[in-house]
Amino acid sequence: MKNFLKSGHTMTVTLAAAAASGDLILQGTMFGVAATSGGIGDAIEIACGGIYTLAKAGSQAWTQGAALYWDATNKVATTSSASGANTKIGVAALAAQSADTTGLVRLNGSF
After folding, report:
1. What are 4-63's pLDDT values in tens digits?
2. What predicted TM-score, i.e. pTM, was given to this entire model?
3. What domain count does the chain have?
4. Which of 43, 50, 68, 70 is nearest to 8 (CA)?
């Protein structure tokens, strides 16, 4: 294919704020995990696919496969779309109890 560029499992983004490797990056509606560290204006790679342990909203139980959204204000994954205010990031890879502070999330970018 002459028009194929790359798989899309990782994407290059220009940072709007400093980030450390492992930080969660929301660029428009694209969500990923920073592969490296960088400062404002730096171009870094983010992983857009795979399964990651992320902080989850308290008092929420997740069922496996439940749609998950990123609450950028509280920096947690949640089952609440907040009427479109939260960005869809993936699905629960496993069930999580309401008392759990983290959960396994399969990011939307997984192919």
Report:
1. 888 888 999 999 999 999 999 999 889 999 999 999 999 999 999 999 999 999 999 999
2. 0.88
3. 2
4. 50
Q: In terms of residue numbers, what domain contains 26?
A: 10-47
Q: Do residues 89 and 44 make contact, with C-beta atoms less than 8 angstroms apart?
A: no
Q: How far apart are CA 104 and CA 44, in angstroms?
A: 24
pLDDT of 34-50, one tens digit each?
Answer: 999 999 999 999 999 99
17 with 33, same domain? yes
Tokens of 31: 């969500």
Q: Contact at 8 Å (CB) between 68 and 62? A: yes
CB 31 within 8 A of CB 49: no
Measured distance CA(19)–CA(44) in Å, rounded: 9
